[in-house]
Amino acid sequence: MKNILVVGSAGQIGSELVLDLRKHYGGDRVVAGIRKTKPSEKLLETGPCEVVDALDVKALTEVVDKYKIDVIINMAAILSGTGEKNPMLAWDVNMNGLINILELARERKMKQVLVPSSIAVFGPTTPIENTPQETILKPTTIYGVTKVAGELLGDYYVKKYGLDVRGLRYPGIISHETLPGGGTTDYAVAIYYEAIKQKKYTCFVNEGTRLPMMYMPDCLKATIDLMEADFDKLNYHCDYNVGAMDFTVGDMVESIRKHIPEFEISYEPDFRQAIADSWPNSVDDSAARKDWGWQPEYDLDAMTGDMLKAIGEKHKKGLI
Ligand code: AKB
Predict the structure, then answer these.
(1) Domain for residue 286, yes or no?
(2) For ligand 1, what atom is nearest to the CA of residue 79?
(3) Ligand 1 atom nearest to 180, measured from its CA
(4) pTM > 0.90: yes or no
């Protein structure tokens, strides 16, 4: 049996991952680590919640010992947009937070650490279409720099200490439960909320911007599938490409108009356009498919139907 701590449980992925992990492993075996924000009712009702900041080693160690944690999932990160506004903060949270977790996992001989990476490891000189698993990693954002360093650091702990560290390169993640914060791909969530609320949206990247994206149910599946994969079958550790779908903003508009024909869009690209332009259009995830059976389920239209339904219900109840 595993005792899991999710650091960054209030975030877009963490908040849903904790609930999914609790279904798989049992509520009391999955501790939601929250830094400042008040945990949601769902998190509080389904299992333990503790204040955890990866930069506070003493408090982190106390929680790990209290719950006999042997698996840590580190979902705490400063994303690409916020990172460009505050590079030192991004370095501190993304690198010092990570090494604190890896060191504690090494000292306590933990079973596993999951360290998410991102398509932000790629840069303008990386092949843009069907980006290979092994390729040029020269990002132009501080977030990307920390993600490349994080992948290498995780791999180092695997080789040097025999610690089981794993990670996947998330594309933009789209969900309706918790809003993302500070990322470049946030437009792909905001567009659905504004389609329901205002029937119009001003997008901060242009119509032709194409990026790899994934719907949250696939993101949760990828994360848990990788956690469960047989270590001996892994040819990579902290850097698996995972694809699901890729589309332009224009494609999203078309998909939304199948449900809301009057939806209007305008474009005011800002500094995040250059970040989006430096990332791939699509990724080659054949290594993930081969090594641990990765298989996404959702395409753009299936996701759009689901997103609009869920956000529409929240809107009707006056929750947004
Ligand atoms: C971001 O946009 O910064 C993130 C990511 C792709 O890692 N969503």
Answers:
(1) no
(2) 3
(3) 8
(4) yes
